[in-house]
From TrEMBL:
Family (UniProt): Belongs to the short-chain dehydrogenases/reductases (SDR) family. POR subfamily.
Pathway in which this enzyme or protein is active: Porphyrin-containing compound metabolism; chlorophyll biosynthesis
Pfam family, one: adh_short
GO molecular function terms attached to this record: protochlorophyllide reductase activity
Keywords: Chlorophyll biosynthesis, NADP, Oxidoreductase, Photosynthesis, Signal
Protein name: protochlorophyllide reductase
One GO BP annotation of this record: chlorophyll biosynthetic process
Position of the signal peptide: 1-21
InterPro entries reported for this sequence: NAD(P)-bd_dom_sf (IPR036291), Prochl_reduct (IPR005979), SDR_fam (IPR002347)
EC number(s) given by UniProt: 1.3.1.33
Amino acid sequence: MARIFFFFFFFLLLVVVPSRAFVVGSGAAPRLAAIEAHDASRRELIAEVAALAGLWVPGSALAADGRVVSESELLGFSRQPARKVVITGANSGVGLAGAKLLSSAGHEVVCACRTLERAERAAAACGPTAQPAVCDLADLASVRAFAASDAARGLDTLALNAGVALNTKDTVPRRTKDGFELTIGTNHLGHFLLYRLLEEELKKRPTNRLVVTASPVHDPTTGGGKVGSPATLGDFAGLRAGPGFDMCDGGSYDPEKAYKDSKLCNMMFTAEAARRLSPSGVTANAFSPGLIPSPDGFFKYQNPVFARVFSTIATAVGVAETPAFGGSCLAFMAADASLDGVSGAWYDTEPPGKHQLLCHDPSDEARDLEKQKLLWALSDKLVGLA
Ligand SMILES: NC(=O)c1ccc[n+]([C@@H]2O[C@H](COP(=O)([O-])OP(=O)(O)OC[C@H]3O[C@@H](n4cnc5c(N)ncnc54)[C@H](OP(=O)(O)O)[C@@H]3O)[C@@H](O)[C@H]2O)c1
C-alpha cells in the first residue's frame, strides 16, 4: 500500500504539477507566452534550415499548430460523408467506444480484433453498420490474412488503435508468434505490417486517413514519460539484431519502458507515414486518448489491487479520462471534416483530465528524421518486407 501512495505522490509531482494547465492556472501566462514564442521562432528557424537543405516536405513533420479541440467539438465530429473506418482493438476501451460512436453516426466500421468471438461481440454492440474481422497483431500471418480480406477493401480511415501495456513486474519478455517482444511486436510491428499492406489501398482516395493511437509517455520530458525508465530507441541495437530482440535499444527487458518505446515507435511511424502519404493527399495523425486507468481494460495486466486504487485516485483528483472520451477522440480524428488536409500532427489530451485535445510538439526523438527513416527500414526488415 505504501508503494501505491509513493507512486501516486510521484504521479502528482511529475505528471500533474508540470502540466501547462498548472503554469497557466498559476498566473504565469506571460512566461508561457515567452516560452511559446521562443519555441515558435525555433521551429521557424529549423524549418528554414531544413527547407534550405531540401529536407522539408509540407505536412511531413509531427506538427504543432496549438489548436485546442473542446469536448463538444470532439463529440460533434462529422457525420458526412460516411466513411469506412477500420479500427484495431475495437472490442475494448477506446476502440470499442470509438467504434460505437462512429457507427451510430452512420459510418461503416470494421471491428478488427484479436479473435472472431471478440470481434463479433464488438460489432453486435455497435449495430448494423459494423462488421467483425479477425486481426491478431501478435501474429503476422493473421495481419496478412486480414489485409487481404474484403473487410479491408475500400477503407477510408485506418485507425491503428490496439495496444498492450504488460505487467511492469514481468522479468521475462513475452513473445509474439513471430518471436518479437510482445509490446513492440503488437503495438508497433503488427500495426506497421498492417499499414504497409494497406498503404496502396489507403492511397486510392486523397480524403483517406491514417490515425494512430499514441501516448504522451513517448516523451521523456513530460508527464508520465518522466516517471520510471524514459523512452528511447537508442541506436536501435535490439531491432538491428533481429526478431529475438528484448528491447529496441538492445537493453535488458523492462516492460514499462517497452510500452513507452512502443508509443515512441507509433509517433515516429506516424511522421514517416505522413511524409510518404503526402503526395497522395492522404493524411496521417497521432493522438492520445488521455489517462484511462480501466482495471479491466488498459490496466488488465497490472496488479488488480494497484489498478483499482490507482484508477479511483486518478479519477478522484481529476486527471483521468473515460473510454467514452477516448472514443470521441478516436471518432473525431477518424472522421471530422476540420482535419481534412491536416497531416503529421500530434493531438494530446492536455491538460490531463480536462476533456480536450491540444495539438503540440512531441518529443525531440519522435521528431528525429533520421531515426524515423531508420525505424521504418528496420521494421520493413523485421516484418519480412525487405
Ligand atoms: N488507457 C490509457 O491510459 C491510454 C493512454 C494513452 C494511450 N493509450 C492507448 O490507447 C489504445 C487503446 O487502449 P485502451 O485504453 O482502449 O486499452 P484496452 O481497453 O486494453 O484496449 C486495448 C485493445 O487492444 C487490443 N489488443 C491487444 N493485443 C492485441 C493483438 N495482439 N491483436 C489485436 N488487438 C489487440 C485489445 O484486445 P483484447 O481485448 O483481445 O486484449 C483491446 O481491444 C492503446 O494503443 C493504448 O496504448 C491508452
